[in-house]
User: Fold this.
Amino acid sequence: MLSIPSTFIEGKHAYYGEIKDAFEERGFVINGNWEYYKAFFDHILHQHEGETIYLRLPIYVLQGKLDRDDAFFEFGQPFLLKHLVHTGIASDDNDFGILDAIGLAQFQKPLDPDDKIEKEDKWRHAGLSAIERLAPIFH
Assistant:
């Protein structure tokens, strides 16, 4: 994990219903592990084979629940996360199935859910650039 301090987004407030479409148009989506009172907007900065680098924007719900458009929340400090997943066939015969064979198994355990990010300056810059593309939403 690599933090990206950003005075532009940190501490900003928004209503979920007012920003969700504009965020999705820019490639930011609520990740699958959201809760009613906290979540992350994830944006893929890089994806190649089994490696994905995500820009993650934490949000903390101050009023309402996140499954509603009137949820009011605050952004926390963005960070980068590198995720490594299996790209080959599972080595344990007990876990092997047809989805593994054709590469569609979506529930494999990651090799490393928080791998070290190389070239930190490059990825911090890429993350900040992606955050800056959100500027029109807040003006």
User: Anything to note?
Assistant: Residues 16 and 69 are 5 Å apart (CA to CA). The chain has one domain: 2-134. The helical segments are 16-25, 98-102, 120-132.
